[in-house]
Amino acid sequence: MYTDSLLRLLNVAFYIYSRTFSNVLFGVEVSIMRRNTVTLIKYAICSTALIASGLFLLHSIHWMKIHPKSLSQDEVKLEPGQPNPNLIKVFEEILDKTRPVVEKKDWHDYKAIEAEQAQQGPGEQGKAFVLSGDEIDKKNELYRNNGFNALASDKISLQRAIKDIRHPDCLQKKYQKFLPTASFIIPFHNEHLSTLLRSVYSILNRAPKELVTEVILTDDHSTKDECKQPLDDYVKEHFTNVKVVRAEKREGLIRTRLLGAKHATGEVLIFLDSHIECNINFLPPLLEPIAANYRTVVCPFIDVIDYENFEYRAQDEGARGAFDWELYYKRLPLLEESKKNPAEPFANPVMAGGLFAISKDWFWELGGYDPGLDIWGGEQYELSFKIWQCGGTMVDAPCSRIGHIYRKFAPFPNPGVGDFVGRNYKRVAEVWMDEYAEYVYNHRAYYRNIDPGDLTEQKAIRQKLNCKPFSWYMAEVAFDLPKFYPPVEPPPLAEGEIRNTGTNLCIDTKYKGGNERFKLETCSKEEGGRGEQQFEFSWHKDIRPKNRKICFDVSQSNPKSPVILFDCHGMQGNQRFKYRVEAQQIFHPISGLCLDCDPETKEIYMNPCDPKSKTQQWQFEKPDLEALKKDYASPADR
Ligand SMILES: [Mn+2]
After folding, report:
1. Residues 61 and 294 sit within 8 Å (Cβ to Cβ)
2. DSSP H helical ranges for 81-187
3. How far is the CA of 323 from the centre of ligand 1 (A)?
4. What is the 3-state secondary structure (H, E, C) of 613-626?
């Protein structure tokens, strides 16, 4: 409250001050100045003093006490599925549209940027680096141990330059002049030394020095030699604000992050991975939304560092995080509002994982991570639900980009402690998801019998912070999630065998995999159950073998276009079919073709639709005729 009114006072003062000052500068109303020079100078001196003392006060009070309006103040009841105007209001606050004006500055370090642009060598400027063929043995060994091409990493400078692939709007963006300080927490286990050190350099070289309190390398009981003395020596010799903290036994990712957080002394905690590279000016966009509201959590855009050749590239231009009801991480498309403002933070229902910034106060108010979560898994949901339900906000900041090596494979053995992921998920579902937990158990029945351990402490945090129910989160934050990932799958439009009228043969996909074609076979009912002939024309409007997530896919539109099996993407497009009930045709709207076959070769393909052709007529064993007709009349895509 106090800070709020102080800010407003400051703004008024600043407004008067800047008007007076610009008049003096630009000679507008000079005659007034001559007449009242003395008064004006007095005015200027007074307001300068006011500003100076105000800023001093503001800075010394604490940046974080600028508390926001909470979501609950004027709650709007909404039908699920509509974006919540209340949320948008909060983001306008983050966008600084309704907040008092704070002084901003351009945080780019142009000297450093220019110097980086001149760098040349292997992998420089984020380019792909290909090893020469004669190092294959060494390469293979390091690959096995790391799940990425660590030998290539060793040949690339620890301080290489990478491509600035931010949206052009980011280049002009200014951020407030006073930002909180940050402690970086990097948990690692047997990380390759050069990728670990490159992560550290990318932070220190591309963040303003005054904002970095420290980098805390948190060792989850590594066994590799290079992670021990050689790391300590390097850190001692090259850095002044990098600490190595070590776990006494193997703790897993979650408790290792907690251990790092306990050693942090900066105002904001920034959790990162141990094989990343931070891009130009990544830090101010992460800190500003937190300075505006200490309960805001900010995630960077995560780019891809190629595991084979270390090329730096974008994975996409942003999406919102979500989950399906087996608790797999999924993504939702951006809202129209954020497409129009590509450099502005947007609400994110679920964080992608290990890369995010959170104020230290808010992290510990939330109780950190649930320390009962073991090894890894579920922690991104736990923290995301907790942040939203307990009065916080989470955004993605498109102008903060950090590259990450997605490994080709996991090089670590299974920790051998049973189904820790299932147990973690059960803890999260039990503490945060209320009646929606039931949908998770319906998809993963064995979770019902998992013992989640003691939940008293976690439930007490929820009670103490007076957190909202999960139904609120679903209605207001993840409002469009059920459209893409419905908790109860709607029934299919048709199922069973698909029989061709002209040949009296059935489609048989024979349990084939991706990119494979399939043919007609004698219907298994008549022959006694061979092959794979049970299908679902699913609510996604695709056709798939029953209980599999592989779909009929057509990507050409010429006669005899092949139909292949491809991972179901659920986004319709080239996997979208319609059924013409009267004509018995299986129609593919995007290509405008109909499913056809050759009675001789038994091949299946797409052909221009011909209502008289018997080979284009198909019958589903169990059609829902009403639903099929309704679907045929509807637009092709949702
Ligand atoms: Mn990683």
Report:
1. no
2. 85-94, 110-117, 136-146, 150-155, 168-172
3. 19
4. CHHHCEEEEEECHH
Q: Is the pLDDT of residue 297 over 70?
A: yes
Gap from CA of 193 to ligand 1 centroid (Å): 14
- CA 251 to ligand 1 centroid distance, Å: 17
Give SS3 for 172: helix
pLDDT at residue 530, as a whole number = 77
Residue 536 and residue 544 in contact, taking contact as beta carbons nearer than 8 Å: yes
Torsion over CA: 287, 293, 295, 299 (sign): negative
pLDDT tens digit sequence for 181-202: 999 999 999 999 999 999 999 9
Q: Is 580 left (phi over 0), alpha (psi -120 to 50) or beta?
A: beta
Residue 49: enclosing H or E segment and its boundaries? helix 37-61
Distance 269 CA to ligand 1 centre (A): 18
Q: Judging by DSSP bridges, how do beta strands 175-176 and 356-359 pair with one another?
A: unpaired
What distance in angstroms lies between residue 441's CA and the mean position of ligand 1's atoms? 29
Predicted pLDDT of residue 82: 57
What is the whole-number distance in angstroms between the Cα of residue 625 and the centre of ligand 1? 48
Give the pLDDT band (50/70/90) at residue 528: low
Q: How far apart are CA 245 and CA 254, in angstroms?
A: 15
pLDDT in tens, 107-134: 999 999 999 999 999 999 999 999 887 7
**pLDDT (average), residues 21-48:** 41
Q: How far is the CA of 275 from the centre of ligand 1 (A)?
A: 6
Residue 436 has which token pair? 């929606």
**Distance of CA 354 from the midpoint of ligand 1 (Å):** 8
* Rounded distance from Cα 410 to ligand 1 centre (Å): 10
Which residues neighbour 143 within 8 Å (Cβ) at sequence distance 6 or greater? 149, 150, 151, 408
What are the b/e assignments for 406-418, b being 16+ CB within 10 Å? eeeeeeeeeeeee
pLDDT: which is higher, 548 or 6: 548
**458 C-alpha to center of ligand 1: Å?**
27
Cβ atoms 437, 429 nearer than 8 A: yes
Residue 541 is which amino acid? K
Band of pLDDT at residue 507, cut at 50, 70 and 90: very high
Report how far ligand 1's centroid is from the alpha carbon of 403 (Å).
Answer: 10
The pTM score is 0.75
> Which residue, among 103, 98, 107, has the nearest Cα to 173 in the 3D structure?
107
